[in-house]
Amino acid sequence: MSCKHKYKSNKILYNKIKDWRLNTKGEWSLIKCNRCDLIFLHPKPTKQSFQEIYPNNYYTHIREKAKEISKIKKYILYKIINAIIAQYGYKNSNENFIEISNKKLNGFNINNNYLYYIAGKILKIIPLLEDLIVRKIMFIKGPAKGIHLDIGCGNGWLLDRTRNLGWNVLGIEPDPKAANQAKKINIDIVGNKIENANIKESSITIITIRHVIEHVEDPSSLLKQCFKLLKPHGKLIIITPNIESLGYKKFKKYWRDIDSPRHLYLFSIKTLKNILIENNFSIKKLRTSSPSAYKMFIISNNIKRFKKYSIDCNIFIKIKSFFFTIKEELLRLFIKNAGEELLAIAVKNEKSK
User: CA-based, 20 to 30 A from 274: which of 23, 213, 302, 325?
Assistant: First the structure.
């Protein structure tokens, strides 16, 4: 980033923020740059502390077990998911979004059933439902042509899905334990950093960065490298927490996605737009979304009330969380920065240098 945030007049938003997720020793401050408005953590964690803040049981190392659901629910979910995914250009969806007792469901040829096509068109007009489903493939449109690179791919769950949709896939993952999990499902891990990845310049069709840019020491450098690797008109898709969300405004320093000391930067629509333009990307879509609001509310409420990071709660809190999610989704239709997450889709222009 051209701005180095070294200004005496920078605004301290909160002091004495703790690591509620893992109880790492220490306290941090959340600071807003007086020049560019980017919000950042101070002090930054040292490289020596990475093992402590990203331990063996960190969520990227673990592949979730299959859930037991009823046959009726399975059937309904299966049809809804495939119908919506079909609207993204995957007419022959063989992706396994639902696992039942470790047995994967096969897709079906939606192109041969006009009823499902119409159902998908109807369901697609419900923004929250569409976001809940299509974020599972990071809003990547088909048909699959070329290479999908996922930066910070963790255990490889996203690449496993897009590979099943027809993409050639590559992953970059700095954590060796998470990378080993991805390799177990035959994901090709080409490096632990984008700078040393074995990838030709201008060879990648799609790059995804899901809840990663907020973790890296130099987001601008990351975007510069992405630009080099993308083909002309290649797409960069980013999902990251939104520091101006309704959830942040409600819970403030107890908002789940502050997640100190792992989240080094927290973006708004303005600051994410600025850093993309600064790195020569053409922005095709930049908006907020609300699918993560439900869990955010429960965890943030537990942090605020009980000083612990937990998804456990009573039925009353679950109901409050549900209505908060609906409220946020409705507000998002009128207030563009209300959603919990930012979604950016940007393109490498042929003339950009």
Answer: 325
